[in-house]
Design brief:
The chain is of the alpha/beta class. It is built from 11 helices and 7 strands. It has one domain: Rossmann fold, CATH 3.40.50.150. Helix 2 crosses helix 3 and helix 2 packs across helix 4.
């Protein structure tokens, strides 16, 4: 795998770590894959604080997807940059079609641990060229997850993705976590992804930067809800709140929802 693809092991480790501790989410699949893969993380990428953050971030996305699946019965779910994530298991596909999308080499690895079904498919594709959308026959409504992806795309690439999604689907709801331009700048020198060889990332300061045509910004979500911070105890809760949920954190990392409807 190239360096960007290797970043998938950071959230995988985080979800495995918190699942073993019984915190935030139950993710036995992450535990299974992490134990089997044996990928060596080092430095900040194996921090327990980052693991807590990855676990909470996954919970926030899971809740959003679950709610929209209840509201939009005819929607397909598309997880762009799925890596080894088990969201399809944690949330459940029910009567919705679910598509996990990632680079061919990632999907090859993923197929070792996941099997396709009537409602679940894995698609090989580069989010930057969008030809992978031809593999999805449904075209009415889509719930699109971009967790830990937008920072590897330029604004033009994000807008191209938005245009392609809008051309394919009548209605879209999309949730993406985004770096600020300041975060992207300092990431070249201090970021857990540096530990797997990634230095080039991108950020935005205005959520409307990703808007294109009918694809528009809807609202900002809370990245680290207080209910999850409260699951930590004493000193850990205090430190985590300062590191990942304070005002400085918001200057680095945001969670934005977009739609076409």
């Amino acid at each position: 795998m190239n360096s960007v693809n290797k970043t998938l092991y950071i959230p995988l480790y985080g979800k495995s770590y918190v699942s073993k501790k019984g915190l935030f989410l139950d993710d036995k699949k992450a535990e299974e894959i992490w134990a089997a893969e044996g990928f060596k993380l080092r430095g900040k990428s194996k921090s327990k604080w980052l693991a807590y953050y990855m676990g909470i971030r996954s919970c926030v996305f899971d809740e959003w997807v679950n709610q929209l699946m209840m509201d939009l019965q005819d929607a397909v779910v598309i997880h762009i940059g799925c890596g080894m994530d088990s969201r399809v298991i944690r949330v459940g596909s029910d009567n919705h079609k679910w598509y996990d999308v990632d680079f061919p080499e990632v999907i090859t690895e993923r197929r070792k641990y996941y099997s396709e079904s009537k409602n679940y498919r894995m698609i090989e594709g580069d989010v930057r060229d969008c030809t992978w959308l031809t593999a999805i026959k449904e075209n009415k409504s889509a719930i699109v997850v971009m967790e830990g992806v937008s920072m590897y795309l330029t604004v033009d690439e994000m807008q191209n993705l938005a245009n392609s999604l809008c051309f394919h689907f009548e209605n879209i709801m999309l949730l993406a976590d985004c770096y600020s331009s300041f975060a992207a700048k300092i990431s070249k020198h201090k970021n857990p992804i540096n530990d797997v060889g990634v230095t080039d990332v991108y950020g935005i300061d205005n959520p409307q930067a990703y808007q294109s045509g009918k694809f528009t910004f809807v609202k900002e979500h809370t990245m680290i809800p207080q209910k999850y911070i409260d699951k930590l105890k004493g000193f850990e809760r205090f430190i985590f709140a300062k590191l990942y949920a304070g005002s400085f954190s918001k200057k680095l990392y945001r969670l934005f929802e977009y739609a076409k409807n």
